[in-house]
Design goal:
eight-stranded mixed β-sheet; 22 strands; seven-stranded mixed β-sheet
Length: 840
């Protein structure tokens, strides 16, 4: 009964979260649920009392979400952009470390009405240690949580808001922060402070003892510091389906619990028989082992930083241990339902968290698989080690396959991957990590806490184990087709997939229905794996991606050719190629780029291209011929060499491609401009690089788009002198809307119907400047901004003069106004939802 009630409650939470957007539809859904339960009741398929409990749980979920949302909205913060503030507060979470920086979650104390209460602060080049529970003072510029807004992309701002973060900020250098009061002296913070200090000691010992990649792996899986993990190594774990091993997930805690339970039970059974008999009168060895297992699991969770995902896994394991203590160890589904209820009652937003969904879906798949196997398979009759190994191997492969099939829709949705290798790799990686690497690393950490010292105990052993698994993953990631990226599936297709899975695995019902459901599951999987890109020979699309303070545009031509112009930047914490460009291309079914254009060698334009070149097939790479010594540019050149792509210099007059009536023409700079070289000992300034940017023009039928990169006024003046300037349909505003790139005569000559400025939210340059905004407004040119509108895309057909301009912001669901436009607002939200699913 509990699993059914928990499912109804979770469904109610889901409906409650949609009430602000679809109130009429939710009412209809609740009425339909009541009618369905009444119908089942009349047909004697369900008892009246149970039907009432189910509907009550459904309504309770709706009401609980509404109540939670109401109280959460009472402290709503209206934060001014880049508000400079003196902040005093308490560090309320374990401090996260990475090379050269620390990340703090701070609760402001005191806080005034309307001020940001919970802050996420990054301190670069820190000079003093800070720990969980410390009271600190600092000065920082705060801004609302935000991220890029692209079709089907990850919204980092929304993610932070769900974590309860009201504002983000940063500080740099020594003296930027001071500790007013240590958490050691406060009773409520003393334990957390002590644990965080232990984590700091372990980290320092590991830094003194271990080297990469073993260092990053050790810190990631033992104390939860993933800031030291190399991004390339993380990608390799993702490709091999073992990325879950890099975080303190349910698998780590579960295997530690299993190992501890086995050891404690064996110790209990090893007690002399007379003592065991006396002990059994009070508590069984199973109960005793369950009770003692709580300590190591709890210590590991706390030592790992007690992050939200870790605590959720901890709750699941503690509930399972409680079931063992009560003698209900076979009621796995009841324990899972109880854990889910505890988590969502504390924070209903957990329902939409990736770790919550994947963890519970994995455990559910394991529980259902084991139940089905127990009910359908006969007892093992084969004898000998070989027979046992064959039986265990078949079961392990089937179980791994079941978990993979259960989670593949969510992995495809969030990570654009089908990690097929995980079916095999996890058979070895999970037990080796859980039974060897984690226990050895945890014992070393505990021994260091007890004994102290500068170095980590058993350092050579930890180094060898972590390095070995990293090398094994690297080699496996080189297997052809191991990295298989797909378009993220839509929610309706995911629902259809799970419905078909449930029907295909049903014990009762006509066999023909189960076979049909199995075929449907196979077809859906094949479609996801294929992820075809449909080309009709008539339609073209140009998308200006939201890559923050940078540029990136994707051109999709009627014959299927694809061009990428710039790839955004690659920064300390975020690579736009990895986080924005790549997922967008996969969601469009694009795995190959015919042309990549690096307009000029600046970080915010070509930094993200290194990752793109390594993960996509690239036909030709175009550049200005300008080279730089900076590391970001070297990474791009290394990626091009590794992939065997030749860099080609483009100049005015060159036709980079032709696709029917579409062509991409370089209009600036000319070959003579490119030949004007500076002396070798003179470093290029930003203005020099900007004014040598590649300017290209796409003509498709009667429509045209001009891509101006970062050209400034001097370059625009050269364009006026040397190039025939025809009016364009859409203009990419030069240099993110900087005042130094405003040429009113040139703008008047171009006379675009629309203009798009690629610019970052809260950028420190003030782009686009008021003068630029006024100039476009005076010309009557609608200006679209990626910092406000998100990604902007233009679609048209060769067979028609019409074209459309759309914004990612238009796809966001908007709260309905009950007294103003209830029906119209809800209809508009359904249109937006359909557009999200359709990804047109």
């Amino acid at each position: 009964m509990l699993p059914s009630l928990a499912t109804a409650f979770l469904l109610g939470l889901l409906l409650g979260s949609r009430v602000p957007f679809f109130p009429l539809s939710i009412v209809v859904a609740l009425i339909a649920a009541a009618v369905a339960l009444a119908t089942l009741e009349r047909r004697a398929r369900i008892e009246t009392r149970f039907a009432h409990w189910l509907y009550g749980a459904l309504l309770a979920g709706v009401f609980y979400w509404s109540l939670f949302a109401f109280f959460a909205g009472q402290g709503q913060v209206f934060l001014a952009r880049d508000a400079d503030a003196e902040i005093t507060g308490r560090v309320v979470a374990p401090v996260q470390h990475a090379p050269g920086r620390v990340t703090l979650i701070v609760r402001r104390e005191p806080v005034q009405t309307g001020e940001a209460r919970r802050l996420r602060l990054v301190w670069r080049a820190p000079d003093i240690p800070v720990f969980h529970g410390d009271r600190i003072a600092l000065r920082a510029k705060l801004r609302p949580p935000s991220g890029s807004l692209n079709p089907g992309g990850f919204d980092y701002g929304a993610y932070l808001e769900r974590q309860g973060i009201d504002a983000v900020g940063s500080m740099t250098g020594p003296g930027a922060l001071r500790v007013i009061e240590s958490g050691q002296g406060k009773a409520q913070w003393a334990l957390w402070n002590r644990i965080d200090r232990w984590r700091g000691d372990i980290r320092q010992a590991a830094l003194q003892t271990l080297t990469q990649p073993g260092l990053g792996l050790y810190l990631g899986i033992i104390i939860g510091d993933r800031g030291y993990l190399d991004e390339e190594l993380r990608d390799q774990f993702m490709v091999t389906g073992t990325v879950h091993l890099l975080s303190i997930s349910g698998s780590h805690l579960g295997l530690i619990a299993l190992l501890a339970f086995f050891i404690f039970k064996r110790l209990a059974l090893a007690v002399p028989s007379p003592w065991l008999l006396i002990l059994s009168r009070a508590v069984t060895p199973t109960r005793l082992a369950a009770a003692f297992t709580v300590a190591p699991v709890l210590l590991y969770a706390l030592l790992a930083g007690a992050e939200v995902a870790t605590l959720r896994s901890l709750i699941m394991i503690l509930v399972a241990l409680l079931a063992l203590w009560l003698g209900h160890e076979r009621q796995v589904l009841h324990a899972l339902a109880a854990a889910a209820l505890l988590i969502v009652l504390h924070d209903p937003h957990a329902l939409f968290d990736i770790s919550f969904q994947l963890s519970f879906l994995s455990v559910l798949a394991i529980a259902l698989f084991l139940q089905r196997q127990t009910a359908s398979e006969p007892a093992l009759t084969a004898s000998g080690v070989m027979g046992w190994c064959m039986h265990w191997g078949r079961g392990a492969v089937r179980l791994s396959g079941a978990v993979t099939l259960a989670t593949v829709p969510l992995v495809a949705l969030y990570f654009n991957q089908v990690p097929w290798m995980g079916i095999v790799t996890n058979l070895v990686a999970v037990p080796v990590t859980g039974f060897v690497i984690v226990p050895v690393g945890l014992l070393s950490a505990l021994w260091h806490i007890v004994v102290g010292g500068m170095e980590l105990p058993a350092g050579l052993l930890n180094q060898g184990l972590c390095t070995s698994i990293a090398e094994a993953v690297r080699v496996l990631s080189l297997v052809p087709a191991s990295e298989w990226h797909v378009a993220a599936p839509s929610v309706p297709i995911i629902v259809l997939y799970y419905v078909a899975c449930v029907r295909a695995l049903a014990v009762e019902g006509p066999k023909a229905d189960r076979v049909a459901a199995g075929v449907a599951v196979s077809l859906i999987l094949m479609w996801w794996i294929w992820s075809p890109r449909l080309v009709d020979g008539d339609r073209f699309r140009v998308t200006f991606l939201d890559v923050g303070q940078g540029d990136s545009a994707v051109l999709e031509l009627p014959d299927g050719q694809v061009v990428l112009i710039d790839g955004g930047g690659a920064y300390e914490r975020f690579d736009m190629g990895r986080g924005v460009v790549g997922p967008y291309l996969w969601n469009r079914g694009i795995r190959a780029l015919d042309h990549v254009v690096g307009t000029h060698p600046q970080l915010d334009h070509v930094g993200g291209l290194a990752w793109v070149v390594r993960h996509f097939s690239v036909g030709r790479y175009w550049m200005t011929g300008e080279r730089r010594d900076e590391r970001f540019f070297q990474r791009v050149e290394e990626a091009l060499r590794e992939r065997g792509v030749t860099q080609q210099v483009a100049a005015a007059g060159m036709n980079l491609l032709s696709a029917g009536s579409c062509r991409l023409l370089v209009v600036y700079p000319s070959a003579s401009d490119l030949q004007l070289r500076r002396p070798a000992n003179v470093r290029a300034t930003g203005t020099d690089l900007n004014n040598r940017s590649l300017v290209t023009r796409l003509d498709c039928g009667v429509q045209s788009v001009l891509f101006t990169a970062d050209v400034e006024t001097a370059g625009l003046s050269r364009l006026l002198e040397t190039s025939p300037l025809l009016p364009v349909t859409v203009l990419k505003v030069p240099h993110h809307g900087a005042r130094g790139s405003l040429n009113r005569e040139w703008l008047h000559r171009m006379s675009p119907q629309y203009a798009v400025v690629s610019v970052g939210r809260h950028n420190s340059y003030g782009h686009p400047t008021p003068a630029v905004l006024e100039a476009y407004a005076s010309e009557g040119i609608p200006l679209l901004r990626t910092d406000v509108d998100g990604a902007v895309w233009i679609t048209g057909r060769l067979s028609s003069d019409a074209f459309s301009v759309r914004r990612a912001h238009d796809l966001l669901l908007m709260p309905t106004h009950l007294a103003v436009c209830l029906v119209d607002c809800e209809r508009a939200n359904w249109s937006r939802l359909w557009a999200q699913w359709n990804r047109d």
